[in-house]
Design brief:
By secondary structure, the chain is of the alpha/beta class. It has a single domain, classed as Rossmann fold (3-Layer(aba) Sandwich), CATH 3.40.50. It contains nine helices and seven strands; from the N terminus they run βββαβααβααααβαβα. The strands form two sheets. A five-stranded parallel beta sheet has the order 5-4-1-6-7. The chain has a two-stranded antiparallel sheet with strand order 2-3. The chain is globular and about 40 Å long. The relative contact order is 0.20.
């Protein structure tokens, strides 16, 4: 199973800015403050691999974006929706780079799902805009200020990991 993982509004509150020294959380808390919640849930699911679908991937190199994760999650990462678009022309399927600049998160995830012919997948994101009704069953929609600290979001993710729609 592939799990598409956003960072802001999922792993920590959504108010993050890209500063001179990298990403910084605006307000209370710290970056990746809810990382352990995801790591704990995935510990019982060794078959789950991660694809990074965070906007950080547009600004930072893939390895840097991946390496913000704790090791338990980092070793599960198999790619990023954005980096493949930049580096692998086959991933764009003839669509111009400018298309991907404005692509919604759902469009990026859907492209990966289609290219890799995924049957089992889920996405965790605080941005539900533009998601097709058919794909919403795969989405764990988090609240921007609660992310994976929300028991309802964790419960929904657990259901998807068990294969329940």
């Amino acid at each position: 199973m592939i799990l598409f993982l956003d960072y802001d509004g999922v792993r920590h509150p959504s108010l993050v800015v890209m500063g001179e020294h990298g990403p910084a959380l605006v307000g209370d808390g710290e970056l990746f403050m809810w990382a352990d919640n995801l790591a704990s849930l995935l510990a019982a699911n060794p078959h789950v691999q991660l694809v990074l679908s965070t906007s950080w991937a547009r600004r930072l190199p893939f390895a840097e974006v991946r390496d913000f994760l704790p090791m338990a999650l980092r070793r599960r990462v198999v790619g990023s929706t954005w980096h493949r678009i930049q580096t692998d022309p086959a991933n764009s399927h003839g669509l111009p780079y400018s298309y991907w600049q404005d692509a919604t998160r759902h469009q990026q995830v859907r492209r990966w799902v289609t290219l890799h012919r995924l049957r089992r997948w889920a996405a965790i994101d605080d941005d539900a805009d533009g998601w097709d009704d058919a794909d919403r069953t795969h989405l764990v929609h988090t609240q921007a200020d609660a992310g994976l600290s929300d028991p309802a979001a964790l419960s929904r993710l657990a259901e998807l990991l068990r294969g329940q729609p």
